Every structure is written in C-alpha cells, then in structure tokens.
C-alpha cells in the first residue's frame, strides 16, 4: 500500500471508487467544481493505492475564514472512501493524518471542520482528535401559517455583488469565527454549483439593498418540498422584512412547499425574531466538529458561541 497526493488523471479512479463505495455516480462536473474550480484552492486530496488500484481516498475543500479579525485559510472535511474489499484496515486514519500534516505544514491551513454522520462521528473524535462544537438543530416553520403574496420590492437576481458580501460581512462580524463570504466565494458556492439550483431573492428600495435570502427547494419524504434558507442576508434591524420575504418566495414557486428550514446560531441576535415568526427547533440534528491544526486558535474556536454558521457552510445543502 502506498499513500500519494492527487495527480491529474486520478479523478477517473476517484469517481469509480465513489460508485463502488456508495452505489451511485458522482458527475465529473460536480467533482471539478468542488475540487478543481474552488477559488480558495484545489486538490487537497490523499489517495491510498495498491499498485495501480485505488483503494482509499480522503479530501478536504479549502475556504477562507475570519478568525478573531484575521483572514486565514481553513478547510471543510469532504469525502472519505475505502474500497469495500479493504474495510477495517484503518485507511481513513492513515490518510487523514497524512493530509492534515500536509495542510498544516505546506499550506498553513488553520483548521478542518465538518459535519460527520453517525457512522463517521466516532472515528473523527476518537482517532483524529476532532472536537465536538455542537449538535446543530434546524429552525423549522410550517408554511400553513403564512400568507402567499408578492412584493413589488423583492426581485430575483442571478449573481452576487459587493453589497451582498458586505451585508453578510456585517452580520457575521458579530462572531469571532465565520466563513469569509466574499463575492467570489458566493458566486462559486451558489451560482456556479452544477448540482443544485439556488435562488437569490433581494429586497430593494430607494436606499438600495435592504436584505436578501438565498434559498433552495428540497424534496421531502412526504412528496412536498422544503424551502431551505442557505444564507440569511437580513440584518437584525430589518427583521420585519422576514415575513414579507417568505410570503413572496412561497408565491413564486408552483411546488407545494410545506416547511421553511434554516440554520441560525442560538447566539445570533436574529434568532428570537425567527422564533417570533413561528420557527421552532426541528428536523434531523447534525454533528458539527473541528480539528485545529494551529493550536493558538483552540481556546477561541472550541466555544460554539464564537461561531457564525449557515447551511451554506456544509457540503450537504
């Protein structure tokens, strides 16, 4: 067995291993978007080979992060794969240990964060020195309490501009740690995404942009759709716009939308306004953890009260 860094052409073996491991295809354009076209960096991947056979894989996806008023590079833990014939040999721990060492020493990446599922959570905590930040709950609103009506001041836009990034910066700056939601990042994450369709609704008046929401539709088990708020671009001073946004957005889709869902930190000042508008804790909780590669951020980053987050931080939504 031999651990190697990704080289051009390995993506064919990676996509093949993905199908063998998970029983479904990953489209090549999705892989290229995530691992090759990422504006923060590419190909942070370790591979386990037996001769010319790919038997193990671990990758992270880099992003820029605001930590205590500084801008640093961090990374999101992504796909872990072991060929079924080689399960139980500890490939994941070997690959992750090697990759974290490379990330820290060669790229000065400060941390790896992620949302492990119930099958991988134990391994991240026990074998890779991850720390649990929280079990993240959704805020969920049943749409039966909402009126559907269009607003003349809400519009769909096709891309992000500086005003969107500035608004999210102002909102997230109340926290010590947050993903840097630059214009480049937002357009890559949402507009260029080949797998999911996202909608950017913005409220504009004579002053300019007052707020915006980035949303997607998600097919639920009962055949209805859930509306997922990916980015909450309404600051606390303009939270009266939230029901206007929701009424307009619901009336903009022909699909039957049963719930509105979002992630919002409990310590975000807007949380109580979501509660006031009928949102309640619900949905399937998600593990959220982090491994600090630079120990100087350990104390600050271990306290979830210091973190701003949204659905957009996860690769699932």
Automatic annotation (TrEMBL):
This is GNAT family N-acetyltransferase. GO terms for molecular function: transferase activity. InterPro entries: Acyl_CoA_acyltransferase. It comes from Butyricimonas virosa. Keywords: Transferase. The keyword Transferase applies. It comes from the Bacteria.
């Amino acid at each position: 067995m031999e651990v190697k860094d990704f080289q051009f052409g390995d993506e064919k073996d990676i996509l093949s291993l993905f199908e063998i491991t998970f029983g479904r295809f990953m489209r090549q354009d999705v892989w290229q978007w995530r691992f090759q076209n990422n504006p923060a960096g590419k190909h942070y991947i370790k591979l386990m080979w037996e001769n010319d056979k790919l038997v193990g894989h671990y990758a992270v996806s880099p992003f820029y992060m605001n930590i205590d008023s500084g801008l640093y590079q961090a990374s999101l833990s992504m796909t872990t794969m072991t060929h079924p014939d080689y399960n139980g040999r500890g490939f994941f721990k070997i690959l992750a240990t090697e990759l974290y060492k490379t990330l820290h020493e060669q790229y000065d990446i400060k941390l790896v964060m992620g949302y492990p599922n119930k099958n991988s959570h134990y391994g991240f905590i026990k074998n890779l020195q991850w720390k649990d930040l929280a079990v993240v709950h959704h805020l969920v609103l049943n749409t039966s309490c909402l009126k559907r009506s269009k607003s003349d001041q809400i519009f769909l836009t096709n891309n992000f501009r500086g005003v969107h990034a500035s608004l999210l910066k102002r909102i997230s700056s109340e926290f010590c740690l947050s993903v840097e939601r630059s214009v480049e990042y937002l357009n890559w994450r949402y507009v260029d995404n080949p797998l999911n369709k996202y909608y950017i609704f913005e409220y504009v008046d004579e002053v300019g942009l007052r707020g915006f929401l980035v949303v997607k539709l998600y097919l639920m088990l009962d055949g209805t759709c859930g509306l997922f708020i990916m980015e909450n671009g309404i600051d606390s001073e303009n939270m009266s716009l939230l029901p206007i946004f929701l009424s307009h957005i619901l009336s903009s889709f022909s699909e039957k939308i049963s719930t509105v869902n979002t992630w919002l930190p409990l310590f975000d000042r807007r949380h109580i306004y979501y509660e006031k508008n009928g949102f309640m804790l619900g949905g399937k909780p998600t593990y959220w953890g982090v491994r600090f590669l630079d120990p100087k951020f350990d104390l600050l980053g271990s306290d979830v009260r210091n973190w701003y987050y949204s659905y957009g931080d996860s690769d699932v939504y």
